[in-house]
Design a protein that fits this description.
By secondary structure, the chain is an alpha/beta fold. Helix content is 46%, strand content 19%.
């Protein structure tokens, strides 16, 4: 199992400092923090042409582990065009794993119903088929705030999409009151990609690996994923809110999580 990181923390930090983020800055710091690969996204606006992006990755000794995109709850025309463009760009990069976040409803309701899962399954299945045309595996990411947050809600999607693959996110499951280790053990080799971060129940915030305050044990989750043998890339992700005078920089955060994976997981 190899370890990657995505640009989520750097993007949030750029918003906090008002200093635009460049792909080269992210790649350079990902390499400096000891990662073997990166999960990328943003297309040409952020990464440049596929040849330029691949050249940048080689410069810093990084592999392109996955490409991230999103899918809406309903078949919304601008989104279908956007995810198709992302898939085509990922194919030009030679990326074989698509991290798919989605299932957010345009209007929040107190409850969801079978109709909602039917609607989302139809839209997600179209994305999966389009990715397959380019020999790309689509791994769906259950996420806080979407209609699939928990082990039980994931089962509603598996019922509708028999071959569904997952990107398991340890802290999003914990933050939704679900159990990441149970998710991994329930869905086994459907879990083909993973985001790892920690969670604090006292603040409701995501945090660096080893800095959590919850029942989540990331090391146990990583061990279970290694045992299942379906995950090639483990991706550190931290969608973090920056505030205060001197918050940790993305590089500092990335190093903390990398040290955890080395010391607690042998990665």
């Amino acid at each position: 199992m190899k370890v990657a990181i995505n640009s989520c923390t750097w993007g949030a930090y750029a918003g906090f400092t008002k200093v635009p983020l460049t792909a080269e800055h992210f790649f350079a710091e990902a390499a400096a923090a000891g990662y073997a690969g990166v999960e990328v996204g943003g297309g040409r606006n952020f990464l440049g042409s596929p040849p330029d992006c691949m050249k940048l990755a080689r410069r810093y000794g990084l592999e392109l582990a996955a490409y991230g995109t999103s899918v809406t709850y309903n078949p919304w025309k601008p989104n279908t065009d956007a995810y198709r463009a992302d898939i085509e760009y990922a194919a030009d990069l030679g990326v074989k794993m698509l991290m798919v976040c989605g299932g957010f409803m345009p209007v929040q309701r107190r409850n969801t119903y079978d109709f909602d899962y039917d609607m989302f399954a139809g839209n997600l299945s179209a994305l999966i088929r389009y990715a397959a045309k380019y020999k790309i595996v689509a791994a769906f990411h259950p996420h806080r705030g979407c209609i699939v947050e928990t082990v039980e809600e994931a089962a509603k999607m598996v019922k509708r999409l028999k071959a569904l693959k997952f990107c398991v996110d340890t802290a999003h499951l914990e933050g939704a009151g679900s159990n990441a280790l149970k998710f991994i053990n329930t869905y086994g080799k459907r879990c083909v990609y993973a985001h790892v971060k920690d969670f604090r129940w006292d603040t409701g915030a995501f945090t660096e690996l080893g800095k959590g305050k919850s029942k989540l044990n990331v090391a146990d989750c990583v061990a279970a994923l290694r045992k299942k043998g379906a995950v090639e890339w483990l991706c550190v992700e931290l969608d973090k809110k920056f505030e205060g005078d001197k918050p940790r920089t993305p590089l500092e955060s990335a190093k903390i999580s990398r040290r955890y994976l080395k010391s607690k997981c042998g990665l």
